[in-house]
Write a structure and sequence with these properties.
With 403 residues, the protein is of the alpha/beta class. 40% of the residues lie in helices and 13% in strands. The chain has one domain: Rossmann fold. This is Multidrug MFS transporter.
């Protein structure tokens, strides 16, 4: 099948229309509590709207996207958009980076240059990768499926097809969120093609632990302190991923996300801030964050800026993907955190702000060829986006002996 060059170009008329809609927003009344227990706060959304309409610059991220070679190729009737950034280093090895929801390919943009040109970013020539970064079907500039069946297993097959089409028969994998599930399934289905896998949301939870934590059962007997902590985190996660239950049952009911940019922003920001980076008010309202490079919390080294968050929200808006990107929850047949049968060499990074911190004992059971395991001191669910250097270091160190 053909691979066609692609350029991200949003017409100025669409930028103008976005601003018009933001300024015409009908806001709801204020929440009746002084925290985020009822959802993202009105004051946060009002400040976001002001910044989005008057200061945010989409052209910066558009230029960044276009600084890499972009392509489209049809796989199983759906156009797949992807970045293919090749290294100039002779012994570079290919790696596929898989994003999550609502991350999009933007969550991995910060690690591309250090991966393809490590000598310019504190690494060695032997650390070089050729980077393939696809957009999931229904996300970003990929096409929107018109039939059912695009679950993570089918997407894994599509990624294998893409890598084969690019001439890569052996390659590395890295995934976050849905990307972590997808690369696990890819490695399980096509182990002969995978040199090694890295995940920061590993599927390692034993079936009995998964069943108990999902139903709110008491802590099973015989767990270590580390395993008990993970169990408690899982139990809390299953209670709080309210958005996932809705997306898994009625994604089409979210049609209003296509028509209201502030509605879309509130919906996407709520799980990001409630689960991983609370509270967003420190980013959009604190006087110290009026600087253009303001970051979301000093406790996270690199952090996330207002622009980081709006880059992803704005991509969702321009590509009208609020509903289509959500359907993966409806399509999914695989438990999020359980083992997928991966036998290839595997590296695991555990971040303290993740939904749960995978114990090494469970990781060794789920990944019998575990070659790297590290518990990070800082960071959360989107480390390539928030703490890119830690993911770069993990990919270099975790895969170094496998090249």
């Amino acid at each position: 099948m053909d691979i066609r060059p692609f350029k991200v170009t949003i017409p100025q008329s669409e930028l103008d229309e976005l601003k018009r809609r933001i300024l015409a927003t009908r806001f709801p009344e204020r929440e009746t509590v002084n925290d985020i227990s009822q959802g993202i706060q009105l004051s946060t959304i009002e400040e976001l709207a002001k910044f989005w309409a008057n200061e945010y610059d989409w052209r910066k991220v558009e230029t960044k996207l276009n600084s890499y070679p972009n392509f489209l190729t049809e796989i199983n009737g759906v156009d797949i958009h992807f970045i293919h950034a090749r290294s100039n280093h002779e012994n570079a090895r290919p790696i596929l980076l898989a994003h999550g929801w609502p991350g999009t390919i933007i969550e991995h943009l910060k690690i591309i240059d250090p991966l393809i040109n490590p000598t310019a970013y504190g690494g060695n020539e032997s650390d070089a990768f050729h980077v393939v970064l696809p957009s999931f079907p229904g996300y970003g500039f990929s096409g929107k499926p018109t039939t059912t069946g695009w679950d993570p297993g089918q997407i894994a097959v599509a990624w294998a097809t893409l890598m084969n089409r690019l001439g890569y028969d052996r390659y590395f994998l890295h995934g976050t969120d849905w990307g972590a599930i997808t690369v696990d399934l890819l490695a399980a289905q096509f182990p002969e093609n995978i040199i090694g896998l890295h995940s920061n949301m590993p599927g390692v939870v034993p079936d009995n632990i998964h069943q108990a934590s999902a139903t709110g059962a008491p802590v099973p007997a015989g767990l270590t302190q580390e395993e008990q902590r993970a169990y408690e985190q899982l139990s809390k996660a299953y209670k709080n991923v309210h958005y996932a239950y809705y997306l898994a049952s009625r994604p089409q009911a979210l049609a209003g996300l296509i028509d209201s940019p502030i509605g879309l922003a509130a919906f996407l920001l709520d799980p990001i801030t409630a689960l991983f980076y609370p509270p967003a008010t420190e980013l959009f309202q604190n006087a110290d964050n009026e600087k253009p490079d303001a970051r979301l919390f000093s406790v996270y080294d690199e952090g996330l800026s207002r622009n980081d968050l709006l880059d992803i929200i704005t991509l969702f808006w321009f590509t009208k993907s609020g509903v289509s990107a959500s359907r993966i929850y409806w399509e999914n047949k695989f438990p999020f955190f359980t083992p997928k049968g991966v036998k290839v060499p595997t590296a695991v990074s555990v971040f303290p702000g993740e939904l749960y911190q995978a114990p090494k004992s469970w990781s060794e059971q789920a990944y019998p060829n575990l070659v790297y395991y590290r518990q990070e001191e800082k960071g959360a669910h989107f480390p390539s986006w928030e703490r890119p250097q830690r993911i770069i270091d993990a990919l270099r160190t975790g895969f170094r002996t496998l090249r």
